[in-house]
Amino acid sequence: MTHYPKQEINYEPYTIRTMLKQKEKKTCLLCDKELKGRSDKKFCDDYCRAAYNNELKSVCNNHIRNVNNALVKNRRVLESLLPESRSTAKATREKLIEKGFQFKYHTHLYNTKNGTSYFYCYEYGYLPLENNWFLIVKGREG
Predict the structure, then answer these.
(1) What is the pLDDT of residue 142?
(2) How far apart are CA 61 and CA 82, in angstroms?
């Protein structure tokens, strides 16, 4: 008869915590419906998963959307003040503001060799002049 060495079997004690884990029902993170299926499942369906993630990202997405809307509006204002037949035009600060222009939003700057800075909203730009006047240009982005 062959004798094998004794192996110690380490059983996890069957505690109340273990019982609760087994009885604990997981629910959808969005709608609280009981989940069935995989143990790592977090949502009952694709709609809840997408809605939950959209809600998480909504604050960031709203800020991005608002900034982009302001940039697009600034572009439209500059475009409206620059006649198609001309490459430049002038407008006052008051006229720009009256049309809804927001000076704090621009896509990029173009610095010329002589040190002047053009502010751009996509392909339309403006150069601050004296006495609250602005030169509006198209297509000179850097």
Answers:
(1) 44
(2) 32
